[in-house]
Write a structure and sequence with these properties.
Helix content is 23%, strand content 36%. With 246 residues, the protein is an alpha+beta fold. Strand 5 and strand 6 form a beta hairpin. The protein is elongated.
Length: 246
């Protein structure tokens, strides 16, 4: 190399990009990178939670399928082992069983009641006597000397019917004795008839009394008649006395 070459100056080399006339890109805004990072983390956490939930669902489903399969296998094994001869298919001659007929069940009344048929009558005036045997009804009431004694306080429907000869005078009354009144008996119901028509001689009439009364425990209710000899006792269905609690 000669001196001429050493003293020769080389021009500077410049690279010019003349492809576009766009301005240079702007730097990212402050905080944008941080927001993208948080968004990516949130998406990753959401995906992890969804994956875990799907695995839990598969585990629960598998558990139920296992239980169902185990129950079916147990029922099948039990069905293969019959416990009785009839289930095994053995022929058994039926043994006739004779059952005794049960007597009809009679339910007790829900409340106190009585229905008595006439037993005898006073010749002139007095208290009617009633039949309290097995054919009569008597429940939670006491019968004593022609009187029904109240055992439970309450409202009762009291009734009585008598059949008597038509001619002459006849009187029937339902009365009560109570410790709340010491002046004697109290009339609850009364029937009176006086017939002097001779054409009615030998004919019969009916007297019926009925009403609702409040009775206390210990009260005694009875039927009092005047001219009791005219009462006709030939038919028990026409002469009765009773009451029932409402």
């Amino acid at each position: 190399m000669n001196m001429t070459d050493k003293c020769m100056s080389y021009p500077s080399v410049f690279v010019v990009d003349s492809g576009t006339n766009l301005p240079p890109p702007l730097p990212p805004k402050p905080g944008l990178t941080r927001m993208k990072t948080r968004r990516n983390l949130l998406v990753q956490k959401t995906l992890i939670v969804l994956v875990l939930l799907s695995f839990c669902g598969l585990a629960v489903e598998g558990y139920f399928i296992y239980k169902l399969h185990q129950a079916n296998s147990n029922s099948t094994s039990n069905g293969d082992q019959p416990k009785t001869a009839a289930q095994k298919g053995d022929h058994i001659n039926p043994i006739p069983v004779t059952r005794k007929p049960k007597p009809p069940t009679i339910l007790p009344p829900p409340k106190p009641l009585a229905h008595l048929a006439a037993l005898n009558k006073p010749e002139n005036e007095g208290i009617m006597k009633w039949n309290d045997d097995g054919q009569s009804l008597l429940y939670k009431l006491e019968y004593r000397d022609g009187k029904l004694i109240i055992q439970e306080e309450g409202y009762y429907y009291v009734y009585s019917k008598l059949t008597y000869g038509a001619e002459g005078h006849f009187s029937q009354a339902v009365e009560k004795n109570t410790t709340r009144y010491l002046g004697g008996s109290i009339k609850l119901l009364e029937y009176r008839r006086h017939d002097l028509n001779s054409a009615n001689k030998g004919s019969m009439r009916n007297s019926y009394l009925g009403g609702v009364f409040h009775l206390y425990k210990g009260d005694a209710v009875f039927v009092h008649v005047k001219k009791g000899s005219s009462v006709n006792l030939s038919n028990a269905a026409n002469n009765f006395f009773g009451m029932f609690m409402l």
